[in-house]
Sequence to fold (122 residues):
Amino acid sequence: MPAWKCFIRGTGFPVGPMGNPGPYGFYTTRWVQALNRRKAETKALALLRKDPSFDKPKRRFSWSRRPDLSAARVHFERIDRIAFLPRRRGGGATWFPEDAVSNYAGPAARVRERLADRGAGR
Fold:
């Protein structure tokens, strides 16, 4: 049966991994065996749902009701067929506050600004 490597991004989660209010996003990778790409996506999603690192944090929350998950989304950025499954597949995810990412002007943005400044000076 073919093996697949699924690169997954989550967005719009109202609570981070330590119980901090969001919005938070995450990146993770899951390796699965499946007959095709669509079945690999389904299996990877099932693995995410079973992963204890996505459970509600153990600390007490400051709100009185459950957080609203209606904005939470999971996106499969890539699903690649691979030759074999790795021996150790791990789990968990790398979480990030989404506000910090949207406000980040990385190197590509700085290059665009410099090019725009050069064009305006002509």
Observations:
- Residues 49 and 55 are 9 Å apart (CA to CA).
- The mean pLDDT is 80.
- The longest strand covers residues 3-15.
